[in-house]
Amino acid sequence: MTQSKRADLGKDPQRVSGMFDQVAAGYDRTNTVMTFGNDAFWRAATTRAVAPKRGERILDLAAGTASSSASLAMSGADVVAADFSPGMLAEGKRRHGHLPNLSFVEADAMNLPFADHEFDAVTMSYGLRNVQQPKKALAELLRVTKPGGRLVINEFSTPPGKAFRGLYRFYNAQVLPRVARVAGTNADAYDYLNESIMHWPDQKQLSAWIREAGWTNVAYRNLSFGIVALHRARKPATTQAKAPGSTKTSKPKKA
């Protein structure tokens, strides 16, 4: 995959899905290496934020190899691992398919194959920025969530500290592809991922998108100095119409 091909992916679902198919087998190993083990800490933080409970139905979108889905399923909740990459799902089934309360569904985030108000909680880790229309995905997540249900988005973000932000960007651009090669993974795919992170909006902008989609109680907190941000929100328990002419919106807050 050349630089021009990476730049021209345009987040086309079929092409991005194919890229993830190629890296599925070594995906988790490479993530652990390139994040210095922080991926486990981020996954644990996401599970705590979702707060799964026995008897709940939870959607883990962009589940990849289902590591996060398996963590959620340990609570006894009924978890659906959904992803648009069949290669990732196949790897997830190989590793975690023995869990009786974990199922796998191939799904497009912009057109989810689920009924309205189906899930008590929905979550998505490191996948929203790879969706062609992320605002549409946020609206779809709202649609399939029960009134009063929970949203947790864990996504790479923008470190607020200028010095650390510069170091982080250097690592992503210069070191990460080399780490991927050493780990035996498609380094070009990780070049693409670096580019997607660079062009992704910061914490406040993503919070605004979540609120725009109709979610309430929107908040975020930074993990690992803002390398990733954990966004949380609720679906309104009842639908309330805005007052005529009302354009007032609240600022995103840190959790």
From TrEMBL:
The EC number on file is: 2.1.1.163
Is-annotated flag, keyword S-adenosyl-L-methionine?
yes
- Family membership, please give it: Belongs to the class I-like SAM-binding methyltransferase superfamily. MenG/UbiE family.
Return one GO MF term.
demethylmenaquinone methyltransferase activity
Which region ranges are annotated with the description Disordered? Answer: 236-255
This protein's pathway: Quinol/quinone metabolism; menaquinone biosynthesis; menaquinol from 1,4-dihydroxy-2-naphthoate: step 2/2
Q: Which gene encodes it?
A: ubiE
Q: What is this protein identified as?
A: Demethylmenaquinone methyltransferase
Taxonomic lineage from the root: Bacteria, Bacillati, Actinomycetota, Actinomycetes, Micrococcales
Instruction: Give the species.
Output: Microbacterium profundi
